[in-house]
Amino acid sequence: MASVPSEHEPNRADLHKDPSRVSGMFDQVAPAYDRTNTVLSMGNDRLWRAATTRAVAPRRGERILDLAAGTGASSVALARSGATVVAADFSPGMIAEGRRRHGGIPNLSFVEADATDLPFDDDEFDTVTMSFGLRNVNEPKQALAELLRVTRPGGRLVICEFSHPPSPAFNGLYRFYNDRVLPVVAKAVSSNAEAYDYLNESIRDWPDQRTLSAWIREVGWADVAHRNLSLGIVALHRATKPR
Fold this sequence. Notes:
Order of helices and strands: HHHEHEHEEHEHHHEE
Strand content: 15-25%
């Protein structure tokens, strides 16, 4: 059995995606998480978040679940519409940091939650969304099924996740950045550079756009579609729960 890192030892998840190790890793990077993501993505994280918010199209009076919300940056963008937003994450450190930063927003709440066993009722949300979190779940299809369960009939799913650029030439450049440049930058700006080694591995191991779309259909979502962002570095997947 793998040893559990101490409180001060860098925690590194692996592709087995043991929930306790993944959660512990995110606990350790929580304070600088958003800043590090902006640096490593060269500012594209803000563009991806804006595209996700437009796809969700939040409206006043709606109830929205933002799963794998981290410190709540995406949730705040959704809450600005007046919708009631639940920011859920399985990392206590991320939830604590989110509450510290955004706890004063009245229509935004933070909940610790396991994506494969959500603590919400059936048909509770008008829209569910998950950005850069499905890849870290050890049973992603179960998480997609749970998101379906808690969405009302006719409600919508929006998934923003790393993917695979369809252009071989651009994909080669992207892999060079992830393999050679990203680790160097992560060591300079992150409190746990090893966490970003896992990030790179998880992106490489993650299925392409077509495969993820098939998973979404398989668990029962309808009207499944996707579009690429940043030449396919990221894909935005959308679907609807049948009535």
